[in-house]
Amino acid sequence: MKQVRLFGLVFTIICLLIVPLDAKAHEAKPYHFGFKKSKNGQLPSIAQEGFMEILKEHGAIFLGDSHKKELFLTFDNGYENGYTGKILDILKEKKVPAAFFVTGHYVKDQPELIKRMVKEGHVIGNHSWNHPDLTRVSADTIKNELTQVKDEVTRITGTKDMHFLRPPRGIFSEQSLAVSGKLGYTNVFWSVAYKDWDPKRQKGWKYAYENVMSQLHPGAVILLHTVSKDNAEALSKIIDDARKQGYQFKSLEQLKVKNYR
């Protein structure tokens, strides 16, 4: 009888140890953001990607109000390649707000462009200090990565608000969403994108224009990279022709309705 009781006690202890480990492994499971692209005006989808409910639970942004012809223009700024000034010129001329997700390298290297972004009314988002895979670092490291960017932007510009995060390479987990959420961040993904981040593989402004315009849909969150010459040269026409189709460009801070589909 004593042996039976001892076995039962050991089994219970093992179960108590295993369940938290399994839960932690589940929370740390990495997801690489992907989506079914919009075609012919149809809405994009993340329904088949396996993480839709996780994004919804944590209030992450994939798609805005799909009943309104609104567009949210966002840029990733890992490093400067000489085109951000031109992009800012166009945005100023066209009176279009945007969000720029910056890394530590960018903030240190381009303080004047950071100041200009803020001065001209754009959102500065967090893209982490060292651009790590946030699913492979500790909660403390995530906090440090994000805090360093926010503190440096505050030092340069005086602005203390930073509410949006784009995880490096679009890799995330339940843990990274939860940790960044506790720090006050909304994770921002995208519903329009194309392979534009390789400066050695630029294919001309028409290629950029056609890739963006062919994916436009109500509530679109557009991801572009400022290192792309094609994007800089296509941006003005993208803005003009999107407006001709009845679209309005809004700031991420104006995105009130989040859709998941």
Features:
single chain, alpha/beta, TIM Barrel, 9 strands, globular
Description:
This protein has 9 helices and 9 strands. By secondary structure, the protein is α/β, with parallel strands linked by helices. Helix 3 packs parallel to helix 9 and helix 6 packs across helix 7. The longest helix has 26 residues. The chain is globular and about 45 Å long.
Secondary-structure blueprint:
Blueprint: H1 2-27, E1 31-32, H2 52-57, E2 70-77, H3 84-94, E3 99-102, H4 104-109, H5 111-119, E4 123-126, H6 139-157, E5 164-165, E6 171-172, H7 174-182, E7 186-187, H8 205-213, E8 220-225, H9 229-244, E9 248-250
Parallel strand pairs: 2-3, 2-8, 2-9, 3-4, 5-7
Antiparallel strand pairs: 1-6
Output the CATH homologous superfamily. Answer: Glycoside hydrolase/deacetylase
Q: Which runs of at least 5 residues are low in confidence (pLDDT < 50)? A: 6-23
Count of all domains:
1
Mean of residue pLDDT values: 92
Under CATH, the topology can be stated as: TIM Barrel
Radius of gyration: 21 Å
Shape: globular
Structural class: alpha/beta
GO cellular component, one term: membrane
Domain NodB homology: 69-250
InterPro entries: Glyco_hydro/deAcase_b/a-brl (IPR011330), NODB_dom (IPR002509), Polysacc_deacetylase_ArnD (IPR050248), Spore_PdaA (IPR014235)
Protein name: Delta-lactam-biosynthetic de-N-acetylase
